[in-house]
Amino acid sequence: MTPVPATPIPGPTYAEMHDPRTLPDGFRRRVQAARSREDDALNLFNITWRRPDGTINHVVLPSELTGVEANIIVLIGRDFPSGSHKVGPVYTTLMEAELEGKARPGAQTAVAPSTGNFGIGAAYVSRLKGYRAIVVMPDGMSRERYDRIRRYGGELDLTPGTESDVILTLERTHEAYMRRPEFIVLEQFSLLPNYRFHRSVTGEAALEAAHGHGNGKVALFVAAPGSAGTLAAGDEIKARHPDAHIAAPEPRECPTLYNNGVGHHRIEGIGDKMVTLIHNIGNTDYVLLVHDDDCLWSLLALQDSPLGGMLGISGVCNIIAAVRMAKHLGLGRTDNVVTIATDGFDRYPSVMDDLKQRAGPRLRSELIRWKERPFEASTTDEILDVRTPAQKERLFKQKDATWTKLGYASEYLLKIRSPKFWDEEASRVGEIDRRHVERRGTLR
User: Fold this and answer.
1) 174: closest CA among 277, 262, 281?
2) Are 231 and 223 in contact (CB under 8 A)?
3) Domain 58-81+192-385 matches domain 87-187 at the CATH topology level
4) CATH architecture type of domain 87-187
5) For 238, what's the count of Cα atoms within 13 Å in the CB-facing half-sphere?
6) What sign for the dihedral angle of Cα 405, 419, 97, 188?
């Protein structure tokens, strides 16, 4: 990529990310042409769930593949700039910080704690907007993630461990960067632009993707929490369809929401040993466990299928969980289940190589089994209903324990238990868009 000058680069509003067709025609044609030039800053306007033709980028899995009658609708994130929908929360966090006068290219360095996709997005957006970027990341992630961050000019500050040690990246960020004015911390686990992006952009995309399938409504939304930002889409779905359910899968090897457990696992991007600050616990209905190797085998088995490059490990985890929940809830052919494929296969060849090496002589027989039914692991075991007051209180206490340690006041932690808090934060989108348009001027 060629260097990008350290000058303020305008980008889209929340409304324009929801629907780029609202952009002026000539400008929109330039934005679409920029897709072939990764280093073109106009790609900020390609942060959207929509394809160039305006339709939502999704697939509906055939029932022969899933084994359930319900429509399993998967939003495809790999076609976002930088290859993952995580670029959206990165951009909105930086955009809102600029509006508040807290960030300016050349004056601040962007710092992003991440296990991969958010860090890749931070390096990418920072490059386009003229910021130096540092990604605080565990040292045991896939090689492809480090390579992509460096390719975009990002620097790495590595902490010990793997995916489930992301809490160490958070602690490192708070200790080394959070209170220093030369850094703007894009801290996905607590900052509300992450919530706003997914509620207003991903949530609307999920609702629209369901149109034309089944009864046109969303009965269930499934998203495995890393930062838990994507779960905010479920809040928008519930606002439209109050009877909808939200399910949060996590690795069986790290059952933090399920039973306060911790552990190491191989599903990169989720299972971070904490209840994040922006997780609206009140709206999560079910937590369920998915074995990490089931996700890896399923992903490997799908490589010869039309889904081949569309899915990463966490996307497969979401699909396995969606199938299991559809069985558990008894959903039928008129019911729609929406879930997310955060990224594509391009970030995981080294992980697949490790799986093949671990499998040894049983590789061929395992692949035959998984290709016959890639979501065979979808039993209805280890599904926990967290709608009861006792379960909600347990999760609230887990959240409080982490974020009190990181300096958040008990009054604030009590405030964010209320549904009103989340609705008010979502309602700020219109005013933020208005201020952003005033700041950037007319698009040409």
Assistant:
1) 277
2) yes
3) yes
4) 3-Layer(aba) Sandwich (3.40)
5) 19
6) positive
Residues 77-96, mean pLDDT to the nearest whole number:
97
Q: What is the pLDDT of residues 174-232, one digit of tens each?
A: 899 988 999 999 989 999 999 999 999 999 999 999 998 999 999 999 999 988 999 99
Q: How far is CA 224 from CA 106, 227, 287, 289, 323, in A?
A: 36, 9, 9, 10, 14
Predicted pLDDT of residue 3: 45
- Report the CATH fold assignment for 58-81+192-385: Rossmann fold (3.40.50)
Contact 155, 161 (CB under 8 A): no
Which segments of 302-373 does DSSP mark as H helices, in order? 313-329, 349-359, 363-372
For the beta sheet containing 109-113, the strands, ordered from the edge strand earlier in sequence to the opposite edge, are 155-159, 133-138, 109-113, 183-185
Q: How far apart are CA 406 and CA 347, in angstroms?
A: 31
CA–CA dist 444, 439 (Å, integer): 15
Say how far apart CA 162 and CA 402 lie, in whole Å: 19
Tokens of 337: 């289940």
Phi-psi region of 19 (alpha: psi -120 to 50; beta: other; left: phi over 0): beta
The token duo for 111 is: 């710092």
pLDDT of residue 4: 46
Other beta carbons within 10 Å of 48: 25
Do you know the residue count of the chain?
444
How far apart, in Å, are the Cα atoms of 241 and each of 61, 74, 113, 202, 235? 22, 19, 34, 15, 10
